[in-house]
Structures are given as C-alpha cells and as structure tokens.
Amino acid sequence: MTDPREPVDPRDPDDRPGGLDPDKPRDVPNVPVTPGGPEQPEPGGAELPPGAAVSQVDPRLLMRQEGFAGYWTEFKRRVRGGELGSLPVICGLIVIWIVFQSLNDRFLSAQNLSNLSIQIASTGLIAVGIVWVLLLGEIDLSIGSVSGVSAAVLAVLNINHGWSDGAAIVAAVGVGVGIGLIQGFFFAKIGVPAFVVTLAGLIGWQGLQLYILGSQGTINLRYNSTIHKLTSYYFEYVAVGYGIAGACVLVYAVSRYLQYNRRTKAGLPTIPIQDIAFRTAVLAVIAFAVAYVLNQWYGTPLALVIFLAFVIVGDLILRRTAYGRKMYAVGGGVEAARRAGISVALIRISAFVICSTMAAIGGIFAASRIVSAGQSTGSGDVLTNAIAAAVIGGTSLFGGRGSTYSALLGMLVIGSISSGMDLQSVNSSVKLMITGAVLLAAVVLDSVSRRSQKASGRA
Question: Which Pfam families does this chain map to (predicted)?
C-alpha cells in the first residue's frame, strides 16, 4: 500500500482515482465530497454493523411521515446538529419588519417596499457575485472598485464617445470579465493569496476609475435611456407582476419535481411529493403577495426582476449542475477535490470571473439609479454591504456552504434596517454600527453552527 503522505503523480494512471490497476488499493473515492452541496445526503443517522446492507430509507423521511410530530422531531435534530439554514435570517427579517412597522406605519407601505426593492438591486447583484468566491472560502476586496471602474467605462463610452447604450453596457461587463480573469489567474495559477490580489485590485482599479473619468470627475447619463430604465422602469400592468410571480413558482415546482423524479428512478431517498406541494404553496403565497403589494404602487420594478433572475439562475447552476457541485467540493476541501479529478485552478478562476462580472453589473445599476458615474461610484459602504449581505444571508465565510439566495435575504436585512432608520431620521453612523453588529452576529452564528456540526459528526 502506498504511503498516504506520498504525493500523487497525475501522469500515472494508477495514481489517479479510478486508475487502471484493479488490485491497487485507493484511498480516494471516485465521487467528490461536496459539503453543503445540494445532492449530498446528510449524515448523522445510526451506524450500521460491519457487513450490514445499506438501507435505502432515509430516517428523516420516516419522521416526515409521522405528520407534525415528525416535522418537529426533524427540526430539533437539525437545530442540535447546527443545520439552521436560512431560519435565523428569516426570523430576524420578520422581527425587523415588525419593529419598524410599529414605529412607522409607512414602512410596509407599497411605496416604501417598492423603493426598497430598487435600492438593494445594485449592491445585491454584487453580493450575488461575492457568494461564489465565499463558497471557496476566499474573499474579494476589489468588488467595489470593479463596480466603479465599470460604471466609469460605461459613462465615458456612452456619453463622451457616443456609443449606444447596449454596446456601452456590453463593454462595461467585459471590463468585469477581464478583471476577474486577471485576479483569478494570479490567485489560482501564481499562488498569490486572494486577500492580497484583491486588495491590490481595490487600490489599482480605483486609480483606473479616476484616470478614466479624468478631470470631469462626474459624467451624467441621459434620462429615459436604456441605461436609466434599468432602475426607473416599472411593469405597470397588473398581469405582468402576477405572471412573473407565477413563473417563479413554476420554475421552483418543476425543478423540485424533476429532482424528485430523478432520485426516485435511481432508488435514492427523497422527500415526499406532499412536501414539494406544501413548499410550492408557501412560495406561491409569498410571491403573489409581493406582486400584489408592488402593484399597489407603480407596478413591478424591472430592477427587482433582473436581480431575482440572477439569484434564481445562480442557485440553479450551483445546485443542479456538475459545475456547481464542483464549486461546493472545492470549497469543502481543496485537496480532496483535486484528488477526485476536479480542476481546482479552473474552478477558482471561474469563481473570480463571476464575482467581478457581477460587480460590473452592479456598478451599471448603481450608475443607472443616480443617472451618473463619478469618482464615488463603488466606494463608501458598497464593499462592506455586499460581503455583509452574503454572510448575513447564510453563506459561510469558511467555504462550502451557501447559495445565491443568501444575497437576497442579506440585502433585505441590510436594506430594511437602512430604510427603517431613514424613516425614523436616524443618523447614518447609527446605521453603520447596527449593520456591523448584525454582521458580527451572523459570523458568530456561523461559527457556532460549524462547531455544533463537528460535535454531532456532521461537519
């Protein structure tokens, strides 16, 4: 038997997982371990005696068949094991809304909620991108500067050089892609720590932003242009809002049913079809309630629709594709992923490309909202709010756990706190302190959750 400390030679087929020699023992499984991944069954069940056959029945499913008592037992099991999921942030969001609504009855009004959905879109898009890097257990400190330099490129090409709105948007997004490739290359191929690479990017790309803007400092965009309509357009017809809500529910129901059907045919444990119907019904109530509230004002904002589209598509990629499972695997353990045949460098580079691309898109939405791009675009609390949103929403700073829905939930928390305090005319310094406290609480909860999982053998 080979020494486990001996390095693996990738050129030797016998050293690779699934090599050619059937008699050679292998310590590495053929299937990558994906902590927090979508298809991984949760451990923690009763241990089987040696030689016993593996049961195809998931004990969690037996609990669900017991009705409400079974669900309560399952809930307690997950809490004891540190598997809290999105429950803390959802409960926190409900408490925030109740508190601010009791202080000011305009907080949950259609107008304020509509404005809130537009306000969180630009930073929320950036937060969607940072989720991909956090899944690797890394950080990107340059996202604010990337959004600023992309907005500067957009404004200069569109206004100073007369490019069309569409061409200027494509060029700005291309800047984000290029920056992601550069930073990802230095991190994944050269081996420079992500913190150092992106810290240099934070400084360097901000300097490039100032250079592009030149002596003008601020460039105003045209009103009622395509760029401006990204955050100013509303779907006024009531049917559109309800149609979008119905489409979201349909996508969820179909994806869950396909997963159920696939796992059933493979003889794998899956949740009962009644559970899928119940969850779909809950989502339908929430989606149509949101559409109803937004229709009481100007209608469904285009910015919110685009934001939700990126969240949903990103989650589907992470949880329903081989690429997404590889992303979770690399975040769960780099060496295990490498030995399982995953191109770690390619996954890392792609994560930074996605992150910088989403930062560029967020910068475009930020410029659209204020109808200008200036030296302050992408600065201030953009970086901190984007990272805080992803972490508060449930993405782990330690990698391997999270989803793009974290960006949505986290931005709702941060945006609700900011909106509620604005209605109360609270100083911005207090908002920053409270946001920092919420972020710290989220990280502490994540750390305690990981410790509980290790204690229960689920980490």
Answer: BPD_transp_2 (PF02653)
